Amino acid sequence: MGTTERGANSRTLLEVDDLTAAYDDTPVLTGINFRVHEGETVAILGPNGHGKTTALRAISGLHAKKGGRVSFDGEEISKESSHRIVARGLIHVPQGDLLFGDMTVLENLLLGAYLPKAWRERKERLEKVWSIFGRIHERRNELARNLSGGERRMVAIARGLMADVKLIMIDEPSLGLAPVAIDNLYSALAKLNAVGLTTLIVEESPERVSGIAEFVYLLDSGSITFAGKADELIRDRVMLRTYLG
After folding, report:
1. Burial status of residue 38 (CB atoms within 10 A of its CB: 0-12, 13-18, 19 or more)
2. What's an example of a GO molecular-function annotation for this chain (predicted)?
């Protein structure tokens, strides 16, 4: 399963223990365990349809859990509603972008700062967002529906950063994008750790996250089958062929 060594002095921010979930009577997660430490970028990898999106939705309160325990910033959040989880600083950016097409980029971003503290600090938060996503600063007065796919994805992630974020979970940021857009997006995502953010990314390909993720988990058929460094997984050709084709 790979090495599970992590930084000895880092604080655990997100703890997932024996998490199970299902759709009707069909099991999707069969008891997964993983950790995200403060300041880390961690990735959950795996083929489509094997539970990655469900894991994020269960953590953020958007999908009912069958069992298990989720703790964030030292407190259990297993039974909390999604809006309370957001207020704690655990932000979930789902697949796609879910932007308001007839609103400008700036207006979409300000929607992410709806909680009182975030709204008071919206100017400072916008400056941080512009420093990470320079392209959308150039397009800030453009209607969201006029953006390219890569730009829309940047706006969706940036909107999440406008909240009082301690950890941001991003579900398949490269989904449906052209290779050049993926490269541009991941160049921006690499800056998240540099500005002190803790990030959990869901993706299919270990190559996409190898330059920014300190630790990866491989999720297959609802179970964690590997935990270790991204380059370990990339070197394990048998593991890659078996689980990622």
Report:
1. middle
2. branched-chain amino acid transmembrane transporter activity
In Å, what is the CA distance from 52 to each residue of 56, 225, 237?
7, 13, 22
Q: Where are the alpha helices (DSSP H) in 51-165?
A: 52-59, 82-88, 105-111, 116-120, 122-132, 134-138, 149-161
Residue 168 lies in a domain: yes
Reduced to 3 states, what is the DSSP secondary structure of residue 27?
A: strand
How does pLDDT run across 138-186, given as a tens digit for each residue?
A: 999 999 999 999 999 999 999 999 999 999 999 999 999 999 999 999 9
Paired sense of beta strands 41-45 and 198-203, if any: parallel
Tell me 4's DSSP state: -
Asked, for residue 127, whether it belongs to a domain, the answer is: yes
- How many folded domains does the chain comprise? 1
Residue 6 lies in a domain: no
Domain contains 46 = yes
- Nearest Cα neighbor of 19 from 32, 2, 37, 3 is 32
Residue 59 contacts residue 43 (beta carbons within 8 Å): no
Q: How far is Cα 211 from Cα 165, in angstroms, rounded to an integer?
A: 23
Inter-residue contact 202 to 11 (CB < 8 Å)? no
What is the value of pTM for the model shown? 0.93
Q: Which domain holds residue 148?
A: 12-244
